[in-house]
Q: What sequence folds into this?
C-alpha cells in the first residue's frame, strides 16, 4: 500500500547535535526491536493512509465513524495519531470498511 503523501509532521528545531544515518524505519532508530518496529511502522502507515483518506473524502468525524463502524471518539483518536489505541488488525479492518484493499509484501 504505497502512499504518495506523508502524514503531516510538526517542525522540530534541531538541537545542534550531530545528525546520524537513519535506517528505513524510524521505530528501529528509536530503539525498538526490529520485529516490533516493523509492526509499529505498518500501524503508522495505515493510520496515515486512513487520515489522508478521511481528509480527501472530506468526511466529518461523524461521517467517518458511520462509514468505518466505530464511534466518533475513535475517529478522533485516529486523527490525533493515537497509534497505541489501534491494533494492526483493527486498522486493516477500518481500511477495508473504507473500501480500500490492504496488501502486504515480504521483501
A:
Amino acid at each position: 500500500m504505497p502512499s504518495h503523501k506523508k502524514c503531516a509532521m510538526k517542525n522540530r528545531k534541531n538541537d545542534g547535535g550531530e545528525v546520524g544515518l537513519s535506517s528505513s524505519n524510524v521505530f528501529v532508530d528509536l530503539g525498538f526491536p526490529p520485529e516490533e518496529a516493523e509492526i509499529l511502522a505498518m500501524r503508522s502507515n495505515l493510520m496515515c493512509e486512513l487520515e489522508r483518506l478521511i481528509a480527501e473524502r472530506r468526511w466529518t468525524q461523524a461521517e467517518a465513524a458511520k462509514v468505518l463502524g466505530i464511534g466518533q471518539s475513535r475517529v478522533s483518536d485516529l486523527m490525533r495519531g493515537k497509534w497505541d489505541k489501534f491494533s494492526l488488525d483493527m486498522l486493516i479492518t477500518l481500511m477495508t470498511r473504507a473500501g480500500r484493499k490492504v496488501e502486504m509484501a515480504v521483501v
Residues 1-5, 9-14 have pLDDT under 50 and may be disordered. The two ends are 14 Å apart (CA to CA).
